[in-house]
Amino acid sequence: MTSAPPDRHDPLAPLVLDPAESRADTATPPESPTTIFWRHLKKSPLAIIGGSVLLLFYLLAIVAPFVAPYTEEEMDRRRYFHPPHSLHLVDRQGRFHLRPFVRETRLANPQQFRYEDIETAERPLRFFVRGASYTMLGLVSSNLHLFGVDNGSRVYLLGTDSFGRDEFSRLLYGGQVSLTVGLVGILISFSLGLLLGGISGYVGGATDSVIMRSTELLLSIPSLYLIIALRAVFPIDLPSQQVYLGIVAILAFIGWAGLARVIRGLVLSIRRNEYVTAAEALGVSRFRIITRHILPNTWSFVIVAATISVPGYILGEVVLSFLGVGVQEPAASWGNMLNQARSLRALTSFPWLLYVPGVAIFLTVMAFNFLGDGLRDALDPRRVTGGTS
What we know:
This protein has two domains: 83-160, no CATH class; 170-378, Orthogonal Bundle (MetI-like fold). Helix content is 54%, strand content 13%. It has 14 helices and four strands.
């Protein structure tokens, strides 16, 4: 004999939950857009590696005066074209040392700049040593450096250039120029591209025609020749700081046109949405509609485009400095460091002059590209945004 199912209206009947209601009560709460973004970004290991490399490079550029053992213009007239020092842990008697050390060198062949180690002159590497004074970020003044050697000796982890300047120190100081020129250039050019592209797409008419014809004019001129022509306007004897600002202005001036055209196309589709129509009905000004309601909806594209465009600005500075019209000596940038290696003798006899800035430029460009690809996938609106993918 089977028992009848319990009456739902009977207060004494046992409570039996419907399976559908049970699943609804135990469902996980919806994820925020930030959580979904990070979850998808972590699925791209190359993007994580690229972001980590860039974070390390920018931190080193910020604290360059502290990490670098010497200043960017300090010369050692006894060690031109000195090869990178080798770090040793075992001395000539076979004893192991916990603290690495370097050996003094002497110039064995002045014509070929060949150096030999002095086995009896071992100098331990010390940390937090006193050296040249510096001001970091224009705020902190000190003479404390991360590492160095005692007894008036020198340590060159990446060798020296034709003037006896430490390549490692110049690499760090050069990063302050070569790495920041991309960020500042993107900030300026993307601000112009967003604003002008938004105005062109939303206002239309004669305004749209003038802005688009201007972008077509800029895009029709080869960028390299335009960069060199604009740089020629500035006097050659300008200080390095002003040259740096000039390079940023040049790169930003030619970099906004392509973005403005893409933003215009996005705005043409966004301006038909209901919230834009509602803002217009409420009497909101055109500028406020563009900046508060339309342009924020293009951020996913802008972030990816900025990440991918930064290498172009870095390479633009490298090209200008390599051609001798960028940052001038004795100030350091990766471009004028690379300029030291353009002779055949430097390429064959002193390869570190090419490898040091070349590897830094290569790693930076690849890291930005990896990070840009990961951001593009994580911010793609067409991907599945549920709990699984």
